[in-house]
Design a protein that fits this description.
Dihydrodipicolinate Reductase, domain 2; 7-stranded parallel β-sheet; 383 residues; 14 helices; alpha/beta; Rossmann fold; globular; 9-stranded mixed β-sheet; 2 domains
Amino acid sequence: MNVLILGAGMMGRAIAYDLSLFSGFEQIILSDKDSQTRRSAKNFLKGTNVDIIPINADKSNDLKKHFQKVDVVISAVPYQFNFKLAKMAIETKTHFVDLGGNNTIVENERSLFSKAKKSNVTIIPDSGLAPGLVSIITRDIVDRMDTVDSVKLRVGGLPRHPKAPLNYQIVFSPYGLINEYVEDAIILNHGKILKKKSMTDVESLKFPEPFGMMEAFLTSGGCSTLPFTYKNTIGYLDYKTIRYPGHCEKIKMFLDFGFANETKLNIKGHSIIPRDVFVTLLTKFVPTKGEDVVLLKVISQGTKNGKKRLREYLMIDYYDTKHNITAMMRTTGYPVAIIAQMLENGMIQERGVFCPEEIIRPTLFFAELKKRNIMLSISDRSV
């Protein structure tokens, strides 16, 4: 089997690197329309069996030709492309995996279930960190408990050595970051799916030293389809982003002033989009390089054999200094690669469109994470 990865940025090259080490794909192809990005990826993947080629995701005819030559396509391009790519995958009878990132796009992909099944292909959106890894953790909770009262998902990508004033490091697209901050968060509250404003409900959350007390607040996208999948199974579910204390208050000030708006402003004869200005300033003044860390904590309560249980999952993943791979690349890209590998080796047989919680067996997935030294600590106790 052959695999094509669209997008040779940080996540795309992390996926390619992982597949080169662990998968049985005969050919691994990484593509990007930008020549500088391809050169950078080629240097990063030096010594691997990854082929790097130019492909423009905007050009359907060119895309279709490449889809027809492979068995699995992985999208590491902006989420706006994913619905179109999923439709093309069905047309060319190619399995398709993407990172998700937008609830509307994922819902559009899910509408293709019958067509995908008829074409004998599997489409799996939301396959990264959050959604993705957290979705599979949620399934593990549901599988292991008789009833589930609550699931609280907490995830954050952070600088290992924070610098004022925001104590943040840009570890993925700043446009994607802003979307998480401004779009509504979705929560499940006892059978009702509700929307709440992001960057609200700030709470304190304790981690082992050197991190100590952190903050977490509601953001959009992280739980994706989970409230719908488990509407009648889980009592309460929400997703919050973890940051160093004080970040939410500082960044929210900029948002309240309209820096995330997409409506054009006319300033001294120039048409300016505030969000573009904000992204430019973020990438100029907020660090984009340096060692990062990904913190994850999932706290759940429920019952097992008539007894109240508290089940917690903890992950602290660090920058890979030996291979210069960020923690965000590891914890977002590697899960996608694992799912593609499961398609390649026949561990996933179902056909149609599925989110990870519907199709990935947690025990097998966690074992694959462990092979990559992504350590998930799980505790289960009576309360």
